Amino acid sequence: MEFGYSRAKLGVLITAIVALGLFGGYFYGRATVSPKDASQTISFLRPVFAQNVAATTSFLDQEAGMALYLGTNSPISLYPQANSTFSTIENATSDYILGSMSLPNLPHGDDPHCFVHKDGWIVIYYLKDEGASKVIDWQHYTFQTNELVSNKLKAGLNKMCDAISVNDRSQAQYYNFQYPTATKWMIIIKSELGYAPVSFNMSIPLEVTVYERTWSHYSGYSSGFYVSYFKIDSTTIDTITENGPHTNIGTLSLAQLSQGTNVFHTISISGGWEPGPYAQGVCISLIYK
User: Helix or strand or coil: residue 143?
Assistant: First the structure.
């Protein structure tokens, strides 16, 4: 499954963006919004093995949040191929291995968990309390074309598949074990190669059930002094002042991103700077049905 942006139908969740001029219009006269500034919506599908092998995988329902899984349709050699991929092993049997793996150029705190079963199942996931926005990997976001071409779960899946020589990864599916009745994951990103304020508007209808509202805020300057502000309406949600590429993540309350007919929220990023390379971006992540 490619994790990029497309011109797919966005659905009712952000109809306000289309109504306010997504395709070449302006928001508050400050930024032209192109189709690639729009969201990607990913549908959830509960894995078959989680239904049929509950005794082995019930821990996923207890501890896992956002997950990416793959059924290889062939047995997996756990030792030494799969075993060598883990940085930490929590449990290992003749049937499966459970642990975590490190990812290139990311801190230890971003290590995803991995469950791999000899019958051909791989699950890469983050814990329930970590939130879906943690999956966003800004080092795989192309600011020039506004495309997110990969993420941390996909990087983990690719690492395991490389180790066990699985080439076909096209059937990988996303699922959120924390919210089993959720059906979709929407990701909305706005970015800027510079410090000028940019924004988009969004509205969440009352008929949509939102289980989780999280955000990821990125600042990628490498020299000079730069501050990036992430705001919703007139409220500052996050400020980044650290040197070098930096990402903050967090959760939004219902009050900060409320729902309702004709209730519009403006999500914006802006900054101040001294000369030097810079980039900034914000992602709003919604788990809903």
Answer: coil
Per residue in 122-132, pLDDT (tens digit) is 999 999 999 99
Rounded to two decimals, the pTM is 0.85
State in Å, rounded, how far the first CA of the chain is from the last one.
21
- Tokens 């899984």 label which residue? 69
The per-residue pLDDT for range 12-62, each reduced to its tens digit, is 333 333 222 222 222 222 332 233 344 688 999 998 877 655 455 688 999
SS3 state of residue 178:
coil
Question: Minimal CA–CA distance to 197: which of 138, 280, 136, 284?
Answer: 280
**Which residue type occupies 96?**
Y
The CATH architecture to which 12-43+182-288 belongs is Sandwich (2.60)
- Dist. CA 280–CA 268, nearest whole Å: 11
Question: Domain coordinates of the chain in residue numbers?
Answer: 12-43+182-288, 48-176
CB of 66 within 8 A of CB of 152? Answer: no
